[in-house]
Amino acid sequence: QVRLVESGGGSVQAGESLRLSCVASGIKFKLYAMNWYRQAPGKERELVARIGSGNLTYYPDSVKGRFTISRDNAESTAYLQMDRLKPEDTAVYLCNAGNGLDFWGQGTQVTVSS
DSSP string of the chain? Predict the structure, then answer.
């Protein structure tokens, strides 16, 4: 059974930082691209970071320079370091593992107040 479990969300002030974690089980983690998405109320799900199996990364302009994705294959864990958070970063953050098949975590809430 595949499981992705996110943690690290919370409520912070604008300008502060959070680090999200996603622990995977039931997959050959090192073979999967790991992605972080977010979904705010009334908005579409948005990709915020991707790290491939070869450690290539991608960020949209909305988070580039503020968010950093990383992975620890030995721990089957992906991380999202979020710095200089803004109120518009408020959303549920979801972990995704992709390799032809897609698997999703349940999400962790991030709330940024001004």
Answer: --EEEEE--EEEETT--EEEEEEEESS-GGGSEEEEEEE-TTS--EEEEEE-TT--EE--TTTTTTEEEEEEGGGTEEEEEE-S--GGG-EEEEEEEEESEEEE---EEEEEE-
